[in-house]
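Reminder to self: keep the SMILES exactly as supplied, no canonicalising. Ligand is coenzyme A.
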Amino acid sequence: MSVVAWLKRSFRGQGRLDPTTGMLGIPSSNIRPFAKSDMDACRSLYTQNERGRFPPGYLQTFTDSLESPAQLFLVVELLGQVAAVGGIYRTPESPQGCSLVFGMVRPELHRKGLGTALLLARLAILPRPTGLWWAFLSSAGGSSAFFERFGFQHYGRHALPPDMREFDCYRAYLEESDWTACASILHKRRVFLTREAVQVPIGPAIPNTSLERTREG
Ligand SMILES: CC(C)(COP(=O)(O)OP(=O)(O)OC[C@H]1O[C@@H](n2cnc3c(N)ncnc32)[C@H](O)[C@@H]1OP(=O)(O)O)[C@@H](O)C(=O)NCCC(=O)NCCS
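Structure tokens returned for the bound complex:
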């Protein structure tokens, strides 16, 4: 982490999301909710990313997630093609929490700002927070450094279905100004996000309820 990034992080508070991270690298794109017609493109994105990044055997879980009404998936389109996909749902255990799931970018487009756009879009599409939002995610390892740059902090490990494999758990919180910034950064970077009539559903409970999931515990 650079000295500037370290100073910024210390000043903002540990675990608070910094939506400005990497904002200048975000390319113009179109982000909209997943539609059934995106299924093949999204499964292909998963398969292209699977090796070394997702544990084997999760394609069906990913497909089920795409089809589930309890999770919202957004797709990022570049030149009319699906270039990235990622999901979000509100956590049933915590009214101020959301989970980010299965975020991925087409491999040849990695490190071109699309993952950053997808992260900001998923947060921007949440309703205005009352107080703050907690964003949670589980990582098999490969993307930890990406999320840590935004302020996500490791808070434990838990086992997830279908095979109860252990994942690293990360969380960050957003104050109302951070939530507002997510949308305004996308707007400035000419990312067109379809928000009208889009709602983030309440999703499945995380099996391990013993984990501390909020700052207050
Ligand atoms: C993780 C992922 C979504 C990031 O998207 P991206 O479009 O590549 O990321 P961005 O271009 O917005 O940001 C890239 C910056 O993040 C940082 N970064 C750190 N670790 C990274 C990693 N593993 N992958 C990509 N960026 C990483 C770097 O600073 C990088 O900037 P640099 O290229 O100048 O060094 C994408 O790499 C991906 O699809 N990975 C495979 C699937 C996956 O692991 N998903 C996460 C599930 S929890």
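Points to follow up:
Residues 16-193 form a domain with the Aminopeptidase fold (CATH 3.40.630.30).
The beta strands are 29-33, 72-78, 81-90, 97-105, 132-139, 153-160, 165-175, 191-193.
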